[in-house]
Structures are given as structure tokens and as C-alpha cells.
């Protein structure tokens, strides 16, 4: 008979029968050699006591197993219902150890559920943001193309409509590129490669992206960055973060304004200040400007989709740094980027 298919009741019955046979054989042997009935009665009494103890132990063990299996099933049912397991056993016994493992498994499963729920909520928010952002350029493209198809117009007017269509396509392309960068950063597809290297070259790359637009608006840009400052950072993504802040400074600074960039080295961190003479940000909005797709109502006529500062904060945070804003309405803003030296 296979031991895997042997039930506890059948095993107890077989053990009892085996012990009974051994006891009968022992008593018979004692009577045969001693020839005294007293020895037989003593043997029977001893066998009865042994069987009684064994039966009491088996009954006790069976009751414990039944109680444990009931509590185990109840605990598993509670876990499936989302309820934490209750401690019902004394410490340092087998049942307590199993319950402790179940409690640990429940905590792991709960954290996984919460993580999945958060990722699902973030994904839904991202999809909602994307659908909202692409709605306007797609509507504009449909209108422009519909007008070109349905109404005859001179070649000069056609070029104006085609230019408007190109502007909307560029906005869509910029939006999708920004969303790809955001999703890759948030999902961990991109891991920043921090190396000890000069900050001067990183800042120069960021400034190179905004100088043309600054010249068009006659904005004076001054930079004070010692060339010997080195720190651990990812050059490509740090440059992207600084460019986004500088690009915002150019967008929201009036023609003829000023932008000042200064870098200060401290013992534990490097501070990069980007100060503009633009419109400024109200204090109650300074915490909102880093949200994805956030834009103030009064600047909707300025080109942008409201994702640059969000990306900048994510990139700096991934390098264990942070961004601080000091601003007064009508007097400009200062964005301070703090990056650790280590």
C-alpha cells in the first residue's frame, strides 16, 4: 500500500493492530515460560494502560490537528477576503510558526495588490492625460484638412493652412516624444548612468538649446559656472532637466528680459540657480507647476504642454536631488536645482 494514499485513521488502526499482535505474543510468551496467570493479568493490565495512553495521545493530537486545520482554512479565507491573519497560537510552537509565515505572505500579497492598484491608477491617469492633450491638435488638423479639401483657395492661403497643419503635427510629435520620455522614466526602462564628470559641459548643452529662442526675444542670458566643478550625474538626462527649466524661463520672460544662471559648489551638494525676470508664479501655485500637464490659465497662449517641469523634477529626484522655487508675481522666478556630490 502506498504511504501517500494512507489516511491517518487507517494508519492509527494498523498501528493499533500491530501493537495488539505484539502485546498478545509477549503475554503468551510470558505465560509459556512462567506458567503463572498473575503474569498474564499484569501483562494485560500493562497493555491496557499502554493502549489507553496511546489512544489519549492520538485523540489529543487529532483534536489539535482538526483545530489547526479549521483555523488554517479560516485564516486562508480571511486572506482571500483581504483580512489580515489573527494571532491565535502560543509562540514558539509549530502552529505559531506556520501562522507567522502566513502573516508574512499576506503582507507581501497586500503590498503587491497595492502596487498593482497604484500602477493601474497611474496608467489610467496617463491615458486620460494623453487623450486630453491630443484632442486639440487632432481637432485642429481635421478642421484644416477639411477646409483644404472642401474649399478652393489661392495658393498663398493654402500655404498658410499647410503651415498651420505642420505646427499641429509638430505639437503632436513633441507631445509623443515627451510622453515616451516620461513613461520610460516612470517604468524604470531607463536607468540613469551617474558618473563623476564636469557640470560645465552638461550646463552648456542645456544652454545651447535655448540660446536661439532667447536671441529672438532679445533676452540677455548670463552664466556663472566654474569649469572645475565635478559631481556624479547623468549628463544626458541632467541636461534635459536643466533645458526644460531654461526653456520655461525663455517662454515666460518678456522680450528684452534677463536670465541669470549661477552654479555654487558646497561640501555635500551643487546648487544651480536659474533666475528669470518673467511673470512670476503665485505662491499657491508653486507646488502645482510640477504636476504633469499643468498649465496656468493665463499662459495658454504660450507654446507648451506643461510637462517640462514634471520631467525635470523626475530626473533630478532620480539622482537623489530636488528642485526649489522662489517666485513673486511680476518679479520673476528662481528655480534652484540641488544635486548631491556623491
How would you portray this structure in words?
This protein is an alpha+beta fold and 342 residues long. It has eight helices and seven strands, in the order ααααβααββαββαββ. The strands form two sheets. The chain has a five-stranded mixed sheet with strand order 2-4-5-7-6. A hairpin with a 3-residue loop joins β4 and β5. The two termini are 68 Å apart. 17% of the residues are buried. The mean pLDDT is 78.
Supply the key terms:
two-stranded antiparallel ribbon; 7 strands; 342 residues
Q: Helix and strand layout, with pairings?
A:
Blueprint (H helix, E strand, L loop, with lengths): L7 H27 L2 H44 L13 H57 L4 H32 L8 E4 H10 L2 H6 L3 E5 L5 E4 L1 H17 L6 E8 L3 E8 L31 H11 L3 E6 L5 E8 L2
Parallel strand pairs: 2-4
Antiparallel strand pairs: 1-3, 4-5, 5-7, 6-7
Helix pairs in contact: 1-2, 2-3, 3-4, 4-8, 5-7, 7-8
Series of H and E elements:
HHHHEHHEEHEEHEE
Helix and strand composition category:
alpha+beta
Rg for CA atoms: 39 Å
Shape: elongated
The overall strand count is: 7
Strand content of the residues, in percent?
Answer: 5-15%
Major sheet characteristics: 5 strands, mixed
Number of helices: 8
Instruction: Please report the distance between the alpha carbons of the first and last residues.
Output: 68 Å
Short structural description:
This protein has 342 residues and is an alpha+beta fold. It contains 8 helices and 7 strands, in the order ααααβααββαββαββ.
Amino acid at each position: 500500500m502506498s504511504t501517500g494514499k494512507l489516511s491517518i485513521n487507517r494508519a492509527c488502526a494498523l498501528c493499533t493492530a500491530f501493537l495488539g499482535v505484539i502485546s498478545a505474543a509477549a503475554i503468551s510468551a510470558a505465560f509459556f515460560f512462567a506458567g503463572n496467570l498473575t503474569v498474564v493479568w499484569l501483562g494485560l493490565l500493562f497493555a491496557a494502560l499502554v493502549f489507553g495512553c496511546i489512544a489519549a495521545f492520538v485523540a489529543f493530537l487529532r483534536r489539535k490537528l482538526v483545530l489547526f486545520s479549521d483555523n488554517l482554512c479560516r485564516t486562508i479565507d480571511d486572506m482571500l477576503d483581504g483580512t489580515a491573519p489573527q494571532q491565535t497560537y502560543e509562540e514558539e510552537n509549530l502552529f505559531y510558526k506556520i501562522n507567522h509565515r502566513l502573516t508574512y505572505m499576506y503582507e507581501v500579497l497586500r503590498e503587491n495588490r497595492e502596487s498593482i492598484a497604484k500602477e493601474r491608477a497611474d496608467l489610467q491617469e496617463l491615458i486620460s492625460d494623453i487623450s486630453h492633450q491630443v484632442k486639440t491638435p487632432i481637432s485642429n488638423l481635421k478642421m484644416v484638412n477639411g477646409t483644404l479639401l472642401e474649399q478652393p483657395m489661392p495658393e498663398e492661403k493654402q500655404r498658410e493652412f499647410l503651415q498651420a497643419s505642420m505646427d499641429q503635427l509638430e505639437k503632436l510629435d513633441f507631445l509623443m516624444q515627451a510622453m515616451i520620455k516620461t513613461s520610460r522614466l516612470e517604468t524604470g526602462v531607463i536607468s540613469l548612468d551617474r558618473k563623476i564628470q564636469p557640470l560645465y559641459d552638461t550646463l552648456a548643452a542645456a544652454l545651447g538649446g535655448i540660446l536661439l529662442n532667447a536671441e529672438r526675444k532679445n533676452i540677455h542670458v548670463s552664466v556663472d559656472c566654474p569649469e572645475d566643478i565635478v559631481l556624479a550625474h547623468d549628463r544626458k538626462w541632467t541636461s534635459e532637466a536643466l533645458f526644460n527649466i531654461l526653456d520655461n524661463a525663455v517662454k515666460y520672460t518678456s522680450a528684452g528680459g534677463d536670465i541669470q544662471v549661477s552654479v555654487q559648489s558646497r561640501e555635500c551638494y551643487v546648487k544651480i540657480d536659474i533666475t528669470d525676470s518673467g511673470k512670476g508664479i503665485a505662491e499657491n501655485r508653486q507646488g502645482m507647476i510640477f504636476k504633469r500637464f499643468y498649465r496656468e490659465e493665463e499662459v495658454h497662449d504660450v507654446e507648451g504642454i506643461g510637462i517640462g517641469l514634471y520631467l525635470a523634477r523626475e530626473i533630478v529626484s532620480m539622482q537623489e536631488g530636488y528642485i526649489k522655487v522662489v517666485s513673486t508675481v511680476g518679479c520673476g522666478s528662481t528655480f534652484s536645482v540641488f544635486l548631491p556630490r556623491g
